[in-house]
Amino acid sequence: MRERAGMLIGAGIGACLMYYFDPDRGRRRRSLLRGQTVHAGHKLAAAIDTTARDIQNRTQGTLAALQSVFDDSEPDDEVLVERVRARIGRVTSHPGSIEVGAHNGMVRLSGPVLAGEVDRVIDCAFSVRGVKSIEDRMERHERPDHIPGLQGRTASRAGERPAFLQANWPPAARALGCAAGGLAALYGFGRRGLPSIIAGLAGSLLLARAATNLELRRLTGIGIPRRAIDVQKTVHFDAPLDRVFAVWADFENFPSFMAHVRRVRRLEDGRQGERWRWTVDGLAGTTVDFDAVITRFEPERLIMWRTEPASVVQHSGRVHFDRNPDGSTTVEVKMTYNPVAGALGHTVARLFGADPKHRMDEDLVRMKTYIETGKPPHDAALRGVHAQTNVSPAPAPAQAPAQPSL
Fold this sequence. Notes:
The chain has 406 residues and is of the alpha+beta class. It contains 10 helices and 10 strands. The chain has helices spanning 2-20, 26-69, 77-88, 118-126, 171-189, 194-212, 216-220, 241-249, 342-351, 356-373; strands spanning 99-103, 106-114, 133-141, 229-237, 261-266, 275-281, 287-298, 302-307, 314-323, 329-338.
């Protein structure tokens, strides 16, 4: 077993060395890895600072709560009001609509509130030390319709649940999860036997959950069709809107100026609802095929799509076009996708520069170059094939254009 594990580890190390020291693309890949390492270092430093402040604040709050247990003095009205507001904010969707007043231990509650939340609000107010009685003047409403105080975005009621049961873990909980998961993984994988393997796998999942702050279903890609990873990009094109949109809408021509799109062909006609089959680059020189359906098509404004249910990588997205006052065009791209193995698979692909976000960034640079200069990039998937669009390319500038940037 150990010999087999050693062989696998050695093969993995050899593959990484071949990938990053490739004579043609190794230098660029190492540069990309250095950039990702520096970025990860900055994020780690920020996370450590945030976690330290969160632990400090929670410690101070715990000490204050312990001191209050042994403090027999009655809080004054202002302190009592603030305590009640803080407590009821955890159990009502619109805490700002409830007015709180206090006088000699009697608390007055008024303002609009949903009928289903009244009992929780009163119970929480009574649980505050120093509250002797409650005067209930709250206006009960079955629905928030046409009630100004109950409109708008509702407040999060995450405080009702323990930190580890919330979708977004607080920094202190993430630090504890990383420590516990790391120790469990080291213990489990350092010993033999099925229980140890289970402990190691559980620890690894806990470590990944705490480190990424993603729910397990998004982390593993299980149970969600398209939304494990969110990608958003805004690109400025120094070209008129009609030219930019014409290039975007001509999907079959993408391989002529994109490096990671190998082939696109139409399966069904009729803009909105039409189906296209895409062939794009995968890991280790492989290709991936998927069928996408155009769900919304508005000329010179919007293109939306989603993949068919049988696609290996489920995703959906939208491209929004805006005309700028100076005649240029701004394009906003939003995409959500669910790679194989969820966010974990995305992380592995990112290490090798094969994740959709990284490749989309590169291809958008090539598209920007093509639209602004009219010249297909030399490293497009169909090298040497001149793009054929219905819109004439931009005239060549008098001087060599500067390197385009996003």
